[in-house]
Design a protein that fits this description.
The protein is α/β, with parallel strands linked by helices and about 250 residues long. It has twelve helices and eight strands. It has a single domain, classed as TIM Barrel, CATH 3.20.20.70. The structure holds 2-phosphoglycolic acid. The site of 2-phosphoglycolic acid has 13 residues, from strand 8.
C-alpha cells in the first residue's frame, strides 16, 4: 500500500515571514487530526531555515527544497548544494520541475545528476516529468515520458528509485486552471508505472509513489487521488493559502 504524498510547491512566493505566518496557521489545523498522508512543503531557499526551525519539532509536516545543485561546491554563483541543505531539517528535494526545464534549461542529464546528488545525501527526490500540449496533441506523450524517465533515472539503483517520488505534471495543466481529467491523469500514471516496471520490475514499480500535479484544487483533489495509480499531488497555486492546502489534504485523505 502506497502512502499518499501531498506536497506544496510555493515556487517564487513567500519569504521567511510569510512562511512563518502560513506555517503557524496551517499547523494549528493540521495538528488537530491525523490524515494518513505525507504532507510536504517546499518554500524558497531563503525561507527554508525559518521553516526548518518551525518544523523540526513537528512530525506531521516535512520540508522540501525546490531545487538543488548537481555540484558540491565551487564557482557556481547562486546555487545551493546538498551539504548546505543537510544542515536543515529537510526530507525531500523537487528535481526537474517543468519550469526548471523550460526556463533554466535543465536537461534530462542535469536532472539525473541532481537525483544522484540528492540520494547521496539521503534526500528523497520528487522527480518531475510531463509533456507539453503540443507533444500530447502530436501523439508524443508516451515517447516524451519514457525518455524523461529513462534518462532521468539512468544508473539509479532500485534502492534509490523506491525512495524517489515521481511527479507527473502535464505542462499544459500547470498554473493554467486546466486540470487533466482523472481519466487522462490515470492513463498517464499507469503508463509511467509501466515504464518503471520495464526498467526495475513489477515489485519495485508498485512501490513508487506517483504524484499528479497541474491545477490541483480542493474541488478536484479527491477524484484525482481516488485513481489507482495516483498516489498524491504536487500543488502550486492552491497551496499558497493554508485553508485551501489544508482542504486538499483533507479531501485527499477521505
Ligand atoms: P499549479 O502548479 O498547482 O499552480 O498548477 C503545480 C506545479 O507546478 O507543481
Amino acid at each position: 500500500m502506497r502512502k499518499p504524498i501531498i506536497a506544496a510547491n510555493w515556487k517564487l512566493n513567500k519569504g521567511p515571514s510569510s512562511t512563518e505566518d502560513f506555517l503557524r496557521s496551517f499547523l494549528s489545523e493540521v495538528n488537530k487530526q491525523s490524515f494518513g498522508v505525507d504532507i510536504v512543503i517546499a518554500p524558497s531557499f531563503v525561507s527554508l531555515s525559518k521553516a526548518s526551525e518551525l518544523l523540526s519539532s513537528e512530525t506531521k509536516v516535512q520540508l522540501a527544497a525546490q531545487n538543488v545543485s548537481e555540484h558540491d561546491s565551487g564557482a557556481y554563483t547562486g546555487e545551493v548544494s546538498v551539504m548546505m541543505l543537510k544542515e536543515l531539517f529537510l526530507s525531500y528535494v523537487i528535481i526537474g520541475h517543468s519550469e526548471r526545464r523550460a526556463l533554466y534549461g535543465e536537461t534530462d542529464q542535469v536532472i539525473n545528476a541532481k537525483i544522484k546528488k540528492a540520494r547521496e545525501a539521503n534526500f528523497r527526490p520528487i522527480f518531475c516529468i510531463g509533456e507539453t500540449l503540443e507533444e500530447r496533441e502530436s501523439g508524443k506523450l508516451e515517447d516524451v515520458l519514457r525518455t524523461q524517465i529513462t534518462q532521468g533515472l539512468l544508473d539509479i539503483p532500485e534502492k534509490d528509485l523506491t525512495e524517489t517520488v515521481v511527479a507527473y505534471e502535464p505542462v499544459w495543466a500547470i498554473g493554467t486552471g486546466v486540470t487533466a481529467t482523472s481519466e487522462q491523469a490515470q492513463e498517464a500514471h499507469a503508463f509511467v508505472r509501466s515504464v518503471l516496471k520495464d526498467l526495475y520490475g513489477e515489485a519495485a514499480s508498485q512501490k513508487v509513489r506517483i504524484q499528479y500535479g497541474g491545477s490541483v484544487k480542493p474541488a478536484n483533489a479527491k477524484e484525482l487521488l481516488s485513481q489507482p495509480d495516483i498516489d498524491g499531488a504536487l500543488v502550486g497555486g492552491a497551496s499558497l493559502e493554508p485553508s485551501s492546502f489544508f482542504e486538499i489534504i483533507r479531501n485527499s485523505a477521505e
